[in-house]
Amino acid sequence: MLGGMAVVTNTAQAANGPTTSYDRTLGNPTFEAARQANGLAKEMSYGAILHAWMWSANTIKAHMAEIADAGYTTIQTVPISEIKGPMHGGQFTENWYYVYQPSGTKIGNKVIGTEAEIRAMTAEAHKYGIRVIADGVINHFTADWNAIDPEWQRSEYFHTRTEGNCGDNGTAINYSQRWQVTHCHLLSLWDLNTENQTVANKMKDYLVRAVDAGIDGFRYDAAKHIELPNEFSTYSPYYDTILPNGAQYQYGEVLQGDNGLNAPAYPALFSKYSTNGGGNTASKFGNALRGALQGYNLNAGNLSNLQGDGVRDNQLVTWVESHDTYANTNEYSSQLNAWQMRMGWGVVASKSGGAPLFFNRPAGSGGSNPRFAERSSLGDAGDDEWKHPEVVAVNHFRNAMEGNAEFMRNCQGGNQCLMIERYKTDGNSNNDGVTVVNMGGEKNLAGMATTLDDGTYTDQVYGGTLTVQNKKITSGNAPAGKIAVYFNGSASKRGVVSVSGAKSFKTDTTTVTLNSRNVTNTRYTTSEGASGSYTDGQTITIGRNTSYGSSITVTVTGTCEDGSQVTDSLTVLKKDPNAVVSYTAYAKKPSTWSSIYAYAYVDNNATGSNVIENAAWPGELMTAESDACNGTADQVYEIPEEMIEEAGDSPIRIIFNNGGPGQIAGNKFPGDAVSTDPEDHVDAAGLQIDGSYVWDGNLTVSSTSWTEAACAPIVVNSISINGANNGQLSLDLADAPTAKLTAVVDPANAKVSWSSSNAKVVSVNNGVVTGVAKGTATVTAKAGDKSASVTVTVTGEPPVVASTTIYYPASKFGANSTYLHYRVNKNGAAGTWTTVPGVKMEAACDGWVKYTVDNPNQDEVEFVINNGAGAWDNNGKKNYTGTGANLVIENGKVGTIAPCVVEVPVSSVSIAGGDFSLTEGASKQLSATVAPSNATDKVVSWKSSDAAVATVDASGKVTAKKAGTATITASAGGKSSSVTVTVASASVPVSSVTISPSSLSLKKGESGQLTATVAPSNASDKTVTWRSSNPAVVSVDADGKVTALKAGVAAVTATAGGMASSAIAVSVTETTVVPVTGVQVSDPADGKLELTVGASHQVKASVTRRTQRTKRVSYSSTNASIASV
């Protein structure tokens, strides 16, 4: 069959449409029509599950039709939450498990893809009636705390390392102790605190968002490590919170065998909150089945019971192997080969109980091959066993027998052959069937009893028949080493219609081909108005009624056996034959290829010399162009216009390659199908090109491998260059010929390209600048339409070179099998060739080999390259020649810039002089020394810890701003050194000091106060000191108080901030005392006075003294209560 049937509706779902899995699947008529058309099981708890292990969402989407054809009801993905890593690219070894160690609950990771890609995948699955289970890791996060999403980095969200009472930092779990199982740290991973309601709420939010993204169910990793709600004395809200999330089916990894494990309680919880059931993993039965396969002993009695430990059969997910039994280092199942696994699938998927899970192994792995052969990468589909005809037939058998009873018996009593009968006992043989799994020789089944209704049953794999009469098999065989699936499926064959042809043409008309399979009533219509019926393979002509520049759409329809409709369409552009046509191929050169070629040809079934091609294999070398097509590519090739013209309506195809033989894996894309039989080898068709397309450089085919180029420019806001001083950079050929520049661009995802205005003076490679010769050149970084430049001055003399090193791409002949055959032509005379094959070249840097030739006089070196076994690169029989320190062969050209630029790291940075002090406004020039002197990144950047205190410019000049301290740091190449600057306030000088009053006269013994005024008012030092010129006459204290000590004159001055005032004179005079000789009362004369109460009288007195100067008399009363005076 060409593909599973997809039922499509043109009705858009409203924004408030179904929010649960059931509503959009079993509750949606469109989904149900697709599921029934593809014959898939209704119950997820019964239908076969394809474990698309490590497939990306895009890979799953690309295989959806095949998955539907193969009869899988459900797809199980890897965990879809954010993760750390993977840390080792796309390899499986020691890398696969990162998806089981989430770092948070955002949706999307590097293996499954983005949330948008997951949504697209689930939408595609629902078109085919398929449901999707996501593996959910809800017990733990990564062991790397720093990798955990910041919104989850709270200690209360996780159990402590001692909470479970486990040894070895909480990781040594005793599985008979349920507290330890649920509280310790599995494999050192951070164990979620599942008793915390906030943790439960956050996890539910994640699961609800996953369901909204189209997920229909969950497989819960390490489910038994999470406590049941009432398992301990304190209620745990976790499961009751997270499980009502809208999922249709939920089951847990509850590995059996622990003492105290209440296994049936888990599926009871999962079923309680799911519309289509829930379950546990049947690990015990899987182990028993693998043992039976290993011993070729399919004893029916041993394989009848699914061994659920109290869990019902319809609550079990069964398997032959799981990702844990396969991928973990104990290798429980990886040593079984694909045939044994297929035999096991015949058993487990034919039984009535359980939902069988088919684990898809990585390509070429397991059995006699390594567990991880690394023939596929994370994100790729694995081997093709999942769609083996026997597996597919068993899946369809299972779907057809949904609801039927089961009976198992061995073939004629032999344990190497097992029959799994499914029956209804309703007299209708179309409802019954039997799968016969035979690990031994051919068996004749005639004579055996059976539960099947009478009739003839057809083997859906190999075409044989089995006849039953009166509950006895009368004829039929069990083919040796095969699975025979005998049933008469009533499911209609799914139909397919298609229309194919070139997407454009430049003639008046063109033809398209119409195909159909398993359909009737096939019809076509065109946008030009034509219509009619058609037969498979018919061609029709289109374009005659369409003008140039317009498109024609051809639509085909057909009716399937069940009455459903299928459709397909093709739109073809009619191009102007006079217009200039441009087909451009962009590519990202694979890291393992040293060069990339484009081999283009016209796909018109021509052979030999009649093939229209751009050049003989390997084609033409592509042109390197950094930042091509908005950074999606670094190589460009344009299909010659004459080739496009010559192709006419035939498609042009292109194959990218590294110049090596195309039949060797890894040398070209698309690669050929892997085959161990040379007679089965088929060259892969090239990629069709009819416009501008981009190859992503991935050698593994995916939906993004070859896409139409969308070269809309990224709008760049700004770009600047770090690593130079004010746009200047100096290089010294003798001492430091290299430096590292970095571009800072907005937006940060804009691609940056580097160029030099004169590559003979300065070369630049991804920001690493190398001086070539003395002179000046401009190095430019460009992103979009913005650019920034640095002027590079190269000085000094290069060291004397006494050798020539030749570099060659390692991918051409191999890193360990490339030989240099050379001679040194001294002074123009031909030298002597080395002995064939020459000298073996050694590994240089990634992708290159090298050999150093002694060449003290820098003579011409002539050379060719070979693989030591007869394959040569002799530059088109012209040989390679050159002289100088380096000769680099790339894309057939000789360069002189070594591809292995050795970046010398900075070991230390030191600042001369140590800590220092400045006053405000002052400055100091600092200098820094970078060691070693030949470090690649020697450009020093300066920084101040507090620019308000002191600033530092790009040259290291420090300027003091205000009082305080600041740390000045010089950095280069990831190393730094610091000094401390102490800034003192600047001194404001005193301009004048004045004293008031301006003079002072005192009598001996008296005091006076002087005041000093200091100008300006903000002078730094306003402290005043006083001075008397004659301290014996006048003393003056610190506050300006003067005291007269004796008669005379003294000059007093005030000084502040080193500025003295003008002196003021302080005069001191003596005070003379004249003694009184007598006092005489003159009135009343007799010295007696009588007064009535209230009356008054003036008493008069005179003083007798030696001088006649004014005399002052004082009066007093002996009894103021009688008379006052």
How does the SSE layout of this entry go?
Layout: H1 21-24, H2 29-37, E1 49-51, H3 57-62, H4 64-69, E2 74-77, E3 81-83, E4 102-109, E5 113-114, H5 115-127, E6 131-137, E7 140-141, H6 167-170, H7 178-183, E8 190-191, H8 197-212, E9 217-221, H9 238-242, E10 249-252, H10 265-272, E11 278-281, H11 283-294, H12 300-303, E12 316-319, H13 323-327, H14 338-348, E13 355-359, H15 389-400, E14 405-411, E15 414-423, E16 433-438, E17 443-444, E18 455-458, E19 465-469, E20 472-475, E21 477-478, E22 483-487, E23 496-500, E24 504-505, E25 510-517, E26 519-526, E27 531-533, E28 538-542, E29 551-560, E30 565-574, E31 584-587, E32 597-602, E33 620-621, E34 623-627, H16 628-631, E35 633-638, H17 641-647, E36 652-657, E37 668-669, E38 687-689, E39 692-695, E40 706-708, E41 718-722, E42 728-732, E43 738-740, E44 742-746, E45 753-756, E46 762-765, E47 768-771, E48 775-783, E49 786-795, E50 803-809, H18 810-813, E51 819-825, E52 839-840, E53 842-843, E54 848-854, E55 860-866, E56 872-873, E57 880-882, E58 886-890, E59 893-895, E60 908-911, E61 916-919, E62 923-925, ...
Parallel strand pairs: 1-2, 1-13, 2-6, 6-9, 9-10, 10-11, 11-12, 12-13, 24-30, 31-39, 42-49, 50-58, 61-68, 70-78
Antiparallel strand pairs: 3-4, 4-5, 7-8, 14-15, 15-16, 16-22, 17-21, 18-19, 19-20, 23-25, 25-28, 26-27, 26-29, 29-30, 31-35, 32-33, 32-36, 34-35, 36-37, 36-38, 39-40, 41-44, 43-47, 45-48, 46-47, 48-49, 50-54, 51-52, 51-55, 53-54, 55-56, 55-57, 58-59, 60-63, 62-66, 64-67, 65-66, 67-68, 69-72, 71-75, ...
